[in-house]
Design a protein that fits this description.
The complex is a heterodimer of chains A (122) and B (126). Chain A is an all-alpha fold and 122 residues long. Chain A contains five helices and no strands. Chain A has a domain of 67 residues. In chain A, 86% of the residues lie in helices and 0% in strands. Chain A starts with a helix and ends with a helix. Chain B is globular, with a radius of gyration of 16 Å. The longest helix of chain B is centred in the middle third of the chain and has 27 residues. Chain B is built from five helices and no strands. Chain B has one domain. In chain B, 83% of the residues lie in helices and 0% in strands. The chains are: A mainly alpha (122), B mainly alpha (126). Chains A and B meet through helix 1, helix 2, helix 3, helix 4 and helix 5 of A and helix 1, helix 2, helix 3, helix 4 and helix 5 of B.
């Protein structure tokens, strides 16, 4: 039963990824930890593998629809390891709570901007 | 933040998006997509479909680097479980991208805003 729920959550995660262009880890991690029983670290690591599969399939489909700028994607992807190093350094120097609240604020700000922009376009 | 930038300026902005996406992947384990999509829309004036498609392509590279680091260095990746659950996830992404072509682009913005609010609430409550 738990495995079946995990399959459904992963289906939903992939669908979310395709709809809004994210990897789906936000749903894969709970599916792997809560319903499969992996630890948090194992869940996050295994979720990364699934994100790669989803992103390859999704990018391939979007390429077919004419919705991928390959050069821009390569530049963004190639520079991300630099960001990961910065992120790890920040995590070592700032409190986790402060970082969580800062990212929450950024997420809410971007959500408001997206809605304002969409309403202006409609 | 204008959409019309010089090539150098555009390269800097792309570099900034990659770095910021990496920072948040490193900090929270959430994929970079949550920052890549909005920033491509705000800074480059991409339509929602182009932003999400380009984001998925960038995530291929970001995820590969992350998975190799985790699997290679720490051995935390459960490969068989991950590949098995990738099957429904891959079916989902095929459905999701197909649906996305059939709904208005602004609907994608609203869905994305909803996802960002959910992430913010989860971070605040955690």
């Amino acid at each position: 039963m738990n495995e079946f729920i995990a399959v459904l959550i992963c289906l939903a995660g992939g669908m979310t990824g395709g709809l809004v262009g994210v990897g789906g880890g936000v749903l894969f991690v709970p599916a792997l930890t809560v319903f499969i029983g992996l630890s948090q670290v194992e869940g996050e690591s295994t979720s990364l593998l699934m994100i790669v599969v989803v992103a390859i399939v999704g990018a391939y489909r979007q390429q077919g629809y004419g919705n991928v700028r390959v050069r821009e994607a390569l530049i963004i992807g190639a520079l991300s390891p630099l960001g990961v190093l910065v992120g790890v350094a920040l995590a070592n120097h700032l409190s986790e709570r402060a970082l969580q609240l800062a990212f929450a604020a950024l997420a809410l700000f971007m959500a408001a901007q997206l809605v304002r922009r969409a309403r202006a376009a409609a | 933040m204008s959409a019309s930038a010089s090539p150098d300026h555009a390269l800097l902005k792309l570099a900034a998006i990659g770095t910021v996406a990496g920072i948040f992947s490193g900090l929270f384990g959430v994929g970079g997509g949550t920052v890549i999509v909005p920033l491509l829309i705000f800074w480059f004036g991409y339509g929602e479909r182009l932003a999400t498609g380009t984001s998925l392509a960038a995530i291929v590279i970001i995820g590969l680097i992350g998975a190799l680091a985790q699997g290679g260095v720490y051995g935390n990746v459960h490969v068989a479980t991950g590949l098995l659950l990738s099957i429904p996830a891959a079916v989902g992404v095929v459905l999701g991208t197909a649906i996305q072509q059939r709904i208005p682009q602004v609907a994608v913005s609203y869905l994305f805003a909803l996802l960002l609010v959910a992430i913010a609430v989860e971070l605040i409550l955690s």
